[in-house]
């Protein structure tokens, strides 16, 4: 692969020398490549050389690699000029101000919920009318590209989204549960199990099998080592768990290249447990019923499946109560990786709390009646163009649902 310097035109490299400032290769490959998407788009207006270089695919891929992976939320906004705004928000702990830390990455004209994310893409669901299933669409918040996805003639739930490296295609992993019975199905289309849908192919979902663990309840997967990883949701006070934790709990793993399933050992925990990505390393965080203590286990070796308890975080309950009054209100939590460490995000009612690994309350955000919903997805912004978008019927740029 050519070096970044080799791809820089000689005239552009000489520009900075004539101006007595930084060489353009430093400005572009060390500064512009690290900018968020919106400021980078503005920088394209500086000169033709910058526009050409920052529009090239190799630069856009490098730019995407430098973007942080941000936790995303959804929030309802009041009616403004007859439109009920719906926001997709991201939390960036590195930002300098509170407004920049919790900021909108998309303003939508209808209510959509993030279902999956991958390489800057968001899979959104929109509830249909009473008695109908939700409708899926795919979008890129950075480029304002959006397209509805054709709905199959039978019900599916979404397990994840991934790039298929051998073909360069983007695919959805779908599940049709055994218990779902839909009348008037096409012949041979009623098989329960897992399916793969290739975006923009025009082909129906392709059946790939039914792993035993697919009947369990899973949250948003983590993608690493070319695999999707799920941790089964476990409720210690419930009698309806689909597996026996005494027999050992396992990840379900989906190899995105071979498109096959396997299992993986994980730490045995007796509390509510969730998977997350800690800088490319699989990790699991757990909490008890009171949700006042968070334990974080980290996978030390992917091949040998060795785990280590790395953090035990005690929430600053007294400080949180002083703001929300009742800590027993419905709350949700998420753990994000930052610079090799972890930060804890807790939502209670209209509040978002930012807690560090020592249990210190770093910041709090009040959303009021707009509310805040946590989805477990991550967004890493990308300006890379994808060929599947124009192949989807209803594809549009800078149009509804974007505002």
Automatic annotation (TrEMBL):
Residues 22-63 form the F-box domain. It comes from the Eukaryota. This is F-box domain-containing protein. CDD domains: F-box_AtFBW1-like.
């Amino acid at each position: 692969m050519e070096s970044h310097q080799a791809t820089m035109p000689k005239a552009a490299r000489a520009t900075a020398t004539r101006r007595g400032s930084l060489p353009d290769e430093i400005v572009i490959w060390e500064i512009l490549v690290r900018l968020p998407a919106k400021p980078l788009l503005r920088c394209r207006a500086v000169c033709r050389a910058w526009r050409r270089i920052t529009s090239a695919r190799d630069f856009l891929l490098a730019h995407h690699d430098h973007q942080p992976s941000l936790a995303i939320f959804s929030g309802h906004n009041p009616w403004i000029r007859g439109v009920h705004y719906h926001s997709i928000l991201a939390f960036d702990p590195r930002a300098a101000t509170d407004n920049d830390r919790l900021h909108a990455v998309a303003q939508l004209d209808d209510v959509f919920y993030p279902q999956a994310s991958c390489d800057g893409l968001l899979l959104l669901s929109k509830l249909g009318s009473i008695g109908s299933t939700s409708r899926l669409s795919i979008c890129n918040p950075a480029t304002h590209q959006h397209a509805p996805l054709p709905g199959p003639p039978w019900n599916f739930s979404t397990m994840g989204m991934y790039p298929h490296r051998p073909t360069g295609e983007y695919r959805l992993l779908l599940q049709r549960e055994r218990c779902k019975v839909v009348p008037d199905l096409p012949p041979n289309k009623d098989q329960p199990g897992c399916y793969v849908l290739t975006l923009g192919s025009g082909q129906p979902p392709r059946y790939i099998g039914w792993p035993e663990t697919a009947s369990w309840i899973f949250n948003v997967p983590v993608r690493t080592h070319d695999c999707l990883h799920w941790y089964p949701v476990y409720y210690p006070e419930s009698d309806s768990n689909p597996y026996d934790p005494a027999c050992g709990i396992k990840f379900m793993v989906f190899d995105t290249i071979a498109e096959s399933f396997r299992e993986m050992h994980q730490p045995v925990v007796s509390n509510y447990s969730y998977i997350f990505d800690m800088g490319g390393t699989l990790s699991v965080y757990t909490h008890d019923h009171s949700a006042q203590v968070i334990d974080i286990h980290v996978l030390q070796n992917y091949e040998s499946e060795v785990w280590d308890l790395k953090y035990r975080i005690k929430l600053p309950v007294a400080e949180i109560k002083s703001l929300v009054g009742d800590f027993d209100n419905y709350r949700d939590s998420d753990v994000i990786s930052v610079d090799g460490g972890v930060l804890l995000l807790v939502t209670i009612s209209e509040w978002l709390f930012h807690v560090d690994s020592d249990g210190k309350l770093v910041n709090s955000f009040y959303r009021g009646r707009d509310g805040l919903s946590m989805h477990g997805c991550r967004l890493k912004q990308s300006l890379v163009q994808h060929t599947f978008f124009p192949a989807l019927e209803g594809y549009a740029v800078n149009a509804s649902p974007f505002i």
